[in-house]
């Protein structure tokens, strides 16, 4: 036994659940958030696909969703979560609010990364006759690649923290372990170990992100 209330196998299962929640919600959230970030940049005033109407609608929607604390969002969309996955507890249920939480967050981070690209590069692309799609594909995204990698790294770390909060409503993972066995059963050992596990995961993700970003910038 690891302690009086929990086994090593339970820690392993909890870590696996956390990785699944982070991986799946990050993948789906990126598929939604990255296009959102690109749209925010290209449709804003002065963008290559400028559309004041589209931007004025999309921008506040992203702000509204981002302004909701995750724990409130988690509870508020329980009916929607239950409708999608037929349950409101467990790992699969936690993925729904995690995805909704991270998608606009990634969108805003991607927007900030793309805005760092020097306007001169985009102007040069347009002067060579590049279409808006070509500007985005061959100039905007490659120039911001290093920053985009760090953006996804930040989003991943934010998700890890959110999965811990998902444990409040039985979302599974390390956070659920800390609450169910550590907090509710007054087991300090479990709380300390779960904190150490989360720190190790976060440090690993950050180190990998920094390495990939440096490599992308050298290229």
TrEMBL record:
Major location category of this protein: membrane
Family that this chain belongs to: Belongs to the binding-protein-dependent transport system permease family.
Pfam families on file: BPD_transp_1 (PF00528)
Superkingdom per UniProt: Bacteria
CDD domains: TM_PBP2 (cd06261)
Compartment(s): Cell membrane
Gene source species: Evansella alkalicola
Name this polypeptide is given: ABC transporter permease
Membrane topology: Multi-pass membrane protein
InterPro entries registered for this protein in UniProt: AA_ABC_Transporter_Permease (IPR051322), MetI-like (IPR000515), MetI-like_sf (IPR035906)
Lineage: Bacteria, Bacillati, Bacillota, Bacilli, Bacillales
Record keywords, A-Z: Cell membrane, Membrane, Transmembrane, Transmembrane helix, Transport
TM regions (residue ranges): 20-41, 53-78, 84-106, 144-169, 189-213
Annotated ABC transmembrane type-1 domain residues: 15-209
């Amino acid at each position: 036994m690891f302690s009086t209330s929990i086994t090593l196998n339970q820690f392993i299962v909890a870590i696996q659940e956390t990785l699944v929640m982070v991986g799946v919600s990050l993948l789906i959230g990126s598929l939604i958030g990255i296009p959102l970030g690109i749209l925010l940049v290209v449709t804003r005033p002065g963008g290559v696909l400028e559309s004041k109407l589209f931007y004025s609608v999309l921008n506040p929607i992203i702000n509204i969703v981002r302004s909701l604390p995750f724990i409130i969002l988690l509870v508020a969309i329980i009916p929607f979560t239950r409708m999608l996955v037929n349950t409101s507890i467990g790992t699969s249920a936690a993925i729904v609010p995690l995805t909704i939480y991270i998608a606009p967050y990634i969108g805003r981070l991607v927007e900030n990364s793309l805005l760092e690209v020097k306007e001169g590069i985009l102007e040069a692309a347009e002067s060579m006759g590049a279409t808006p799609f070509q500007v985005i594909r061959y100039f905007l995204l490659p120039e911001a690649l290093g920053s985009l990698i760090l953006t996804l790294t930040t989003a991943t770390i934010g998700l890890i923290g959110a999965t811990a909060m998902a444990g409040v409503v039985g979302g599974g993972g390390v956070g659920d372990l800390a609450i169910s066995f550590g907090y509710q059963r007054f087991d300090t050992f479990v709380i300390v170990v779960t904190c150490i596990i989360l720190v190790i995961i976060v440090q690993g993700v950050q180190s990998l992100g920094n390495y990939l970003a440096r490599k992308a910038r050298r290229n």
